[in-house]
Amino acid sequence: MVLGTIEEAGVGGTALAVYTYALLEISPINLGYRPQLLYSIVPIVVLVLLIDSFNDPIMKRIAGKEFLSNVHDDVRDEVGDEQFYYDHEDKQEKIDDLDKKSVGRVVNIIVGVVMSLTLPVIGFIRYEILGAVVGILIGIAVAYVLVIRQRSKLRNIISELSRLY
């Protein structure tokens, strides 16, 4: 499950690995090439484990508790107490595919938040005011691409999931 989720991390996972590698590269600690590559993968594994462990609270926070409860109520009205997933094998693959996509969107959103908040600070530490300004500009772009757009796509996936029921 975890290995599959790391694979589903997609753009966000890759961005986090590159970002971590770049941070290790500019840090004063010289680890060497191979350890830096290994350490740049650690945040992805930790993030995926956290998402796997705390999926429901994370989804409520990111997608919106009210939005999720409305979707949940719609599904409950449609299905009742029936175990829809297990009773409809023809739709299991589509539901699993949408679930995997939603995990990828959550990874993108979390990585986007982390990067957009830390880029200005790192820019300031490394290059002072000019670095902070560049970090803010890049952080805004990252926030738009990896947070705002991905949250909208996540909500669309959740709505699409409810339509399957």
Measured between the Cα atoms of the first and last residue, the distance is 24 Å
Shape: elongated
Order of helices and strands: HHHHHHH
Low-confidence runs of at least 5 consecutive residues: none
| Percent of residues in beta strands | under 5%
DSSP E strands, number: 0
Number of helices: 7
SSE-based structural type: mainly alpha
Keywords: Membrane, Transmembrane, Transmembrane helix
Transmembrane segments: 37-55, 103-123, 129-148
Description:
Helices cover 90% and strands 0% of the residues. The protein contains seven helices and no strands. The protein starts with a helix and ends with a helix. The model has no long low-confidence stretch (mean pLDDT 82). It has one domain (2-164).
Question: What is the gist of this entry?
Answer:
The chain crosses the membrane at residues 37-55, 103-123, 129-148. By secondary structure, the chain is mostly helical.
What are the SSEs and their pairings?
Blueprint: H1 2-8, H2 10-26, H3 33-53, H4 55-63, H5 65-79, H6 84-87, H7 89-164
Helix pairs in contact: 2-3, 2-7, 4-5, 4-7, 5-7
What are the salient characteristics of this protein?
165 residues, mainly alpha, 7 helices, elongated, transmembrane, transmembrane helix, membrane
